[in-house]
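User: Good morning. I'm curious how pyridoxal-5'-phosphate would be positioned relative to this chain. Could you predict the structure with it bound?
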Amino acid sequence: MYDELKKLYDSDIYPMHMPGHKRQEGFGQIKNALEIDITEIPGYDDLYEPEGFIKDALKRAAELYNAEHTVFLVNGSTVGILASVFAATKPHGRILIARNCHKSVYHAAALRELKAEYIFPSQTDGMFESIDPKEVEDKLKSADFDAVIITSPTYEGRVSDIEKIAHICHEHKTALIVDEAHGAHFGFHERFPKSAVGAADIVIMSTHKTLPTLTQTGLLHVNDEYYEKVIDYLQMFQTSSPSYLLMSSIDSCLSKIRESGSKLWEDFFIYRDAFTRRMEDLKHLKYIETDDPCKIVISTDESSIYATELAERLLNRYHIQIEMESAAYIVAIVTCNDSKEGFERFADALLKIDSTLLDSKDEQVSFERFAGLLHTKAQNNIYIYPPGIPIAVTGEVIDESMIEGGRIKDKRFID
Ligand SMILES: Cc1ncc(COP(=O)(O)O)c(C=O)c1O
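Assistant: Good morning! Here's the predicted structure, ligand included:
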């Protein structure tokens, strides 16, 4: 494995994907891994009952994000979501889930044997938009729910009005959990959206996605009411040997942010703005504006290729690996550790590919091999990864739109 990974590092493939450190030195980087790779030993504190230097690091993190309590995650947002859903619900309780949530939310609901209802964010060109607070309100008026869980920002960088949604939830005495896995950088620069911390009861972040910290690192911010329960469930779901290397990676990164503030993103915005300006020259591909500058979304809907082909060309011809492709668009993750050259290579490649395209594609795509699945019930969650949003959740009836576009169109599929 090491040889393969080193080969990738030595190649000229540029990572327009997570982890946010982009395999480049920078803040939050731990160079000599073995030197500091320990887990709990006497004198070095305990993640689940912190009293020493972990407690201090968590306090610093909570202050930075203005959270009542902050906990380090060493198994990604996945474990934070499992613990949060368990902390905020009773066994067999009711939960309101935004249908574009990550698979970990569905796993949590299944493990807790919850009765789940959905909110359906609208979709534009297959992309989920933000959550309509009115829809949350209508659902909460119709029944009692232990918790509401939504994803903001979405994979494509759409942000919901968390303050409004939190207000509605709290009026109905319902906990609000926000999966902010893609928003660990929120609030650190005036051009980044506001974080859900402070408004929602529990907020989960993958620092490894948009900040330069090691893979699997994350943060969970929680108010007093749910803190003890979250810790109890984290102990059940997360490793009993938390990696100090991972925790230290988060702490160094946050220290650097605390010291330097928004200056850390000065160069990033210069490169990012130059990239956006160049996208004005696209003729067939379409640059999609999103709320989060750390996401670049390019639609292939009005061009002669599918997004999968665009991703292949970017990799094979231009040696650029993007974060994900759906049926109609690609998503790249850009962070403060991206170089000017990285942004320029990406813009050059997109413009060159664009110059070879036409206005429309041959829509003759055959889905016959899936015909046997039509109108049957999904036996498992079915999803493309990334993003890991189920196209069909176990028990849902499979419909043409799910097969043809991988799209979740409306509510009539729910069984
Ligand atoms: C919206 C969302 N939530 C949660 C997760 C899980 O995060 P992690 O990989 O840190 O466990 C992901 C992963 O891609 C995600 O996209």
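The CA atoms of residues 121 and 131 lie 5 Å apart. The chain has 13 helices and 15 strands.
Let me know if you'd like a different ligand tried.
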